[in-house]
Amino acid sequence: MRDVYAHRPVDPGELPSLMRKHIYTGAMAMVCYTLVAHMFFVDYGNRIGLSYWHWGLLNGVAAMTVVFQLVGARLATLSGQRKKLWFKPSSSTVALVEH
Fold it and tell me: CA of 93: how far to CAs of 19, 67, 83, 87, 98, in Å?
């Protein structure tokens, strides 16, 4: 039997199909995570006394992360250099944590 996880060369024609599979896999993982983790999170939040305002604020932040992902993807596409675009913010965050 062939090793499923063995590295192999990828043809350029396979890339669109592989990318779609990875996107679907990630989306399914996020749905599963959201359904399972949020059941416990909501129960915990209600027990510690979160108000409707707090729940609204948390949901607003979560919704804004989706918007910022789209903005970041557009900036990465326009710059053509994803690694340089994200290196500066991530390195400044690491510098803040280390000091």
Answer: 29, 21, 15, 10, 9
Query: Do you know the residue count of the chain?
Result: 99
**Per-residue 3-state assignment (H helix, E strand, C coil) for 9-30:** CCCHHHHHHHHHHHHHHHHHHH
Q: How far apart are CA 17 and CA 36, in angstroms?
A: 29
pLDDT at 62 over 70: yes
Q: What is the pTM assigned to this prediction? A: 0.44
Dist CA 58 CA 56 (whole Å): 5
Residue 72 in contact with residue 82, Cβ under 8 Å? Answer: no
Say how far apart CA 25 and CA 50 lie, in whole Å: 33
CA dihedral for 21, 23, 29, 32, sign (positive or negative): negative
